[in-house]
Amino acid sequence: MKKVYEHFGLETGTQDFIGHAMALYLDDDYIDKPAREAINRIVLYTQSMARYGKSPYIYPLYGLGELPQAFARLSAIYGGTYMLDKKVDEIVLGADGKFVGVRSGDETVKAKQVIGDPSYFKTEGEGKVRVLEGQKVVRAICLLKHPIPETGDADSVQIIIPQNQVKRRNDIYVAMVSSTHNVCAKDIYVAIVSTIVETDRPEQEIQAGLALLGPIHEKFISVTQLYEPTSSGTDDNIFITRSYDATSHFETVVKDVHDVWKRATGKDLVLQKRELEAAQ
């Protein structure tokens, strides 16, 4: 990809924008790799812009909570059971150390496999450490009474500040939604600023993002520990995802979904309409 940039004479700032804001790379390692993947990402971005108009992204009305609800409805159609507000007391293992079921109170739900996020596996089970601590994420959830300045009064925004422009090792992400998405009251805007923690002053690390927001009505800061699985899960049928990182575009989440599907089924995930649905 480096030769492509050189061929078109693109300066560093433009390279940062293309690589991080359009191709959504987390670092600059892609520059020294073949250009095909980066070009495909850029084409996807431009095609999405052409299709949806002012933004290449789509966002669910009523917020991200609609995604698990959609999963629950689809799961029910295909015979699945969705259990709300059930505490997980124990991951039950067999004598061979493989997954047997999940216990909640006096009830145990049995299955061949379990897929879960790291929060369920922080304690050692059967002497095995299933997740390890990784990096930390600092997030600021900010309530605004105005759109983000200099965005054309947009009702939703994603801003990625490339690491090189703020002399960091990680990008800073800014995402904003509003009443247009039915997630807050009219004339209120919700902005989230996040990045990977690099120092012992995490709030200071997101100042470049906070400075873009203008006057902040209310601000909530949190620092979250990230976890990742220690194994693929194929030996005990326990498949653990990675913690949500600092990104606001969910590319890493999609990658993680593909990864855990491949680990659990041994096959690549192919997303397409089922023949029955297509016929209808």
Provide a descriptive summary of the structure in words:
The chain has about 280 residues and is an alpha+beta fold. Among the domains are: about 1-50, Guanine Nucleotide Dissociation Inhibitor, domain 1 (Orthogonal Bundle); about 135-225, Guanine Nucleotide Dissociation Inhibitor, domain 2. The chain contains 8 helices and 10 strands. The protein has helices spanning about 1-10, 10-20, 35-50, 65-75, 200-205, 205-210, 250-265, 275-280, and strands spanning about 90-95, 100-105, 105-110, 115, 130-145, 155-160, 170-180, 190-195, 220-230, 240. The strands form 3 sheets. The protein has a 5-stranded antiparallel beta sheet with strand order 6-7-8-5-9. Strands 1-2-3 form a 3-stranded antiparallel beta sheet, with no helix packed on it. The protein is globular and about 60 Å long. The protein starts with a helix and ends with a helix. The relative contact order is 0.13. The mean pLDDT is about 95. This is Rab GDP dissociation inhibitor. Belongs to the Rab GDI family. InterPro entries: FAD/NAD-bd_sf (IPR036188), GDP_dissociation_inhibitor (IPR018203), RabGDI (IPR000806).
